[in-house]
Each structure stands twice: as structure tokens, then as C-alpha cells.
Specification:
This protein has 219 residues and is mostly beta strands. The protein has a single domain, classed as monomeric porin ompg (Porin), CATH 2.40.160.40. Helices cover 9% and strands 67% of the residues. Residues 3-19 have low confidence and may be disordered.
């Protein structure tokens, strides 16, 4: 009887872990991204992401960003801003939530090859968390192509490097569709795979809304 109880408890523990193993779950990111033009050269960038281990349960991370963007010309722009992250480390070696404050700088380059839109983003991040500091360098290459006046498709890859231990940190590969609801609002639906330096892989559905507003004074 005692052995039976121990076996049942062991099987229950394995089952619970399998259900809570984030690598076996299809997670979801619910995303808001905003761009608010205040002059011909300057705009305000806003962002809020709610990232879940599962489709609608067990939030892994909240991230909010606020930045100021300067447009040098039609091709090149730069952003400097602040980001706040609150992360649940339930599945990591160090459990519990922790907060992460970041300063970030972006260099953005956009151009076209026929109908193919090409976007490069080089991002530096300075992290402040748990009385420590850290540094990320991130590079993203994105491609987009219109399917109609309303629909477009996209694919991107972003690689992360840090200055702690191994240089390579993680990679994000995403693909999906965007729908232009109006000149102000666009909707996004896609899939992303995350792989990291610990050889772990995570699958995420991405659902987003992007809002672009123009607050320049009309002549």
C-alpha cells in the first residue's frame, strides 16, 4: 500500500510538471505598440506587452516601453527610451518575481526592394535589476510584403548578445499577418519561436494592435 501511494504521488508530480513545463505549452503574447508624431522629426513610442506561458493563463512577463524617436530622413531614425519589466521566474532555478529597469537606444533603418519592405533595428539595452547591471546588444532583420490594400505578411529574426558569460543569449524568429483597420489602427496575428543559450525552445502566438497618431499642428 505504501509503495502504491508513493508511486501515485510520483506520477502526479510528473504530470503536474509536464502541464507546467513552458516548453510543452503554447504561450501567447498580447501586444500594444504606439507611435505618436508630435513634429516632422519627433515622435513618441509607447509599448505594453502581456506575455503568458499559456494562451490565457499564467502570465510570464509584463513589459512597458516609452521612448522618443528622431527621424533623420525617410530611411534612418533613432530612439532612446526607458523600459520596465516584471518577470515571473517560476520555472527558473531562482523562483519568484523580479523587476528589471532598462535604458535602451535604437538605430532603425528602413528601405524597400520593389514591394518588399526591409527593416533593420540595432538595439542596445542597459539593464538594472537585483542590485546588478547587464547589457544587451540586439539586432533584428524584418521583411514585409503587401498582399492587398488591407493585408500584409511579415517575417523577422532577432538575435540577442550579452556581456555575461557566453556572448549569445537568445534568438526570436517570427512570422505572421497584419491587417490595416484604418490609417490609425493596425492588427497583427502571428507565431514566434524563442530559443535561448540553455538550448530551450518556446512557442508563442502573438496578437497585437498598433496605433499611430499625428499630433502635429495643422497649417
Amino acid at each position: 500500500m505504501k509503495k502504491t501511494v508513493i508511486l501515485l504521488l510520483f506520477l502526479f508530480a510528473i504530470n503536474s510538471y509536464a502541464q507546467k513545463n513552458p516548453e510543452k505549452e503554447l504561450g501567447a503574447w498580447y501586444m500594444y505598440n504606439g507611435s505618436h508624431k508630435v513634429s516632422d522629426k519627433f515622435s513618441i513610442k509607447t509599448m505594453a506587452h502581456f506575455r503568458f506561458f499559456e494562451i490565457g493563463d499564467d502570465m510570464q512577463q509584463f513589459i512597458g516601453r516609452l521612448g522618443a524617436n528622431y527621424q533623420f530622413n525617410k530611411t534612418i531614425s533613432a530612439t532612446i527610451g526607458y523600459a520596465y519589466l516584471s518577470t515571473d521566474r517560476t520555472f527558473e532555478a531562482l523562483n519568484g518575481d523580479f523587476s528589471d529597469h532598462r535604458i535602451y537606444e535604437d538605430l532603425n533603418v528602413k528601405h524597400k526592394l520593389s514591394d518588399l519592405g526591409i527593416a533593420h533595428r540595432l538595439r542596445a539595452e542597459q539593464r538594472f535589476f537585483e542590485s546588478r547591471t547587464g547589457h544587451f546588444i540586439r539586432y533584428q532583420l524584418g521583411l514585409s510584403h503587401p498582399l492587398s490594400k488591407k493585408w500584409s505578411t511579415y517575417i523577422y529574426d532577432e538575435i540577442f548578445f550579452d556581456f555575461d558569460g557566453e556572448a549569445y543569449n537568445q534568438n526570436w524568429l517570427g512570422v505572421g499577418f497584419k491587417y490595416k483597420l484604418s490609417n490609425i489602427v493596425k492588427l497583427q496575428a502571428g507565431y514566434m519561436n524563442i530559443s535561448n543559450d540553455a538550448s530551450r525552445s518556446f512557442d508563442r502566438i502573438q496578437l497585437g494592435i498598433a496605433i499611430s497618431t499625428d499630433h502635429r499642428k495643422k497649417g
